[in-house]
Amino acid sequence: MAAIDVEPPKAETAMRTLKLSGHVGFDSLPDQLVNKSVQNGFVFNILCIGETGLGKSTLMDSLFNTNFESSPSPHNLPTVKLKAHTYELQESSVRLKLTICDTVGYGDQVNKEDSFKAVVDYIDAQFEAYLQEELKIKRSLSAYHDSRLHVCLYFICPTGHGLKSIDLVCMKKLDTKVNIIPIIAKADTISKTELQKFKSKIMQELQANGVEIYQFPVDDESVSEVNSTMNSHIPFAVVGSTDFVKIGNKTLRARQYPWGTVQVENESHCDFVKLREMLIRTNMEDMREKTHARHYELYRRRRLTQMGFTDVDADNKPVSFQQTFEQKRSAHLAELQQKEDEMRQMFIQRVKDKEAELKEAEKELHAKFDKLKKDHTEEKKRLEELRKKIEDDTIEFNRRKQQTTQSHHTLTLGKSKKK
């Protein structure tokens, strides 16, 4: 390699130096994301499924330390209805738009065969609304209120005898649409020994029926240990309360019974704290991400496939969205043209049939007219003959009458002369 002679700088030329005003790097990106997220706020949507009276509203009040002022539901509703309410919450400088969707009348019907249908339709409706917003030419996803459900808290009746058929059927229908966390409601009605057996039986029945519930992620080293531990506590046995009881020098959220007090936030009494930590503090963002990356993607893929869109053609070669759209548009236009031609041919055939029918009717009318005309002519001829005969008879009658009169007059004259 040839050497390059570099001319040394002249002594009289001064080098200009720039002073850095601070640290330069991209390690501030997380801070930028945090600031942007805090500025925009967060959205979290919870679906509560369970029979009426299991304490769904009370647990929501306890989880977010707020009184949502929900009205009690009756037990005589003919069908299951979903009632969603959105609340604006703020903790420190973080704003959360929380939507709580409750299943009103779930499990109250005699025929529970279609109890899950209203829930499935509601979840699909939220996915469809988001998909339609995505497919718009002018999208506004930043200002769009995302109503997709991020987690489903399924409340299990504390019977101690395993899951009901409606529980298994409903969770099986929803496990590909939403993150399901099973919860044993009103766990203070079961003893600790029975509770552990009840939890084991629930998990065995879920695994035996192929129901996939939400598992807390263990791929993040910072939360893998605690999430792995919490996965072994599912389903959570929880107790909710809107009452505060003074215990010692503290006022705690608890339920007062004649035999004692059940403290909601005491981990030796129930799993309320575990549920709150996993649901709100540790894994809320993972549920939001999994809803978008897994459940919504499955729905989106299925809907686009139903619309006829695909990523590859018959030869397994990539196909752009525009090509698929043009093919669908051409096929649609060809189908419309074919239907138009069929309708035109049908119209022409119907016109021809109508013309033939009208011509046949006209021919029948002409034949009927000719027959009436012929009958009229024959009747007129008969009447003329009858009239002529009557006239002839009248003339004959008058002639005979005249002859008779003359004969009588002659006889009268003869008698007169004889006298």
UniProtKB/TrEMBL annotation:
Ranges of Low complexity compositional bias?
403-413
Q: What is this protein called?
A: Septin
Q: Which family does it belong to?
A: Belongs to the TRAFAC class TrmE-Era-EngA-EngB-Septin-like GTPase superfamily. Septin GTPase family.
PROSITE patterns (UniProt xref):
G_SEPTIN
Q: Which residues form the Septin-type G domain?
A: 40-306
Which molecular-function annotations from GO does this UniProt entry contain?
Answer: GTP binding
| Native species | Parnassius apollo
- State the UniProt keywords alphabetically: GTP-binding, Nucleotide-binding
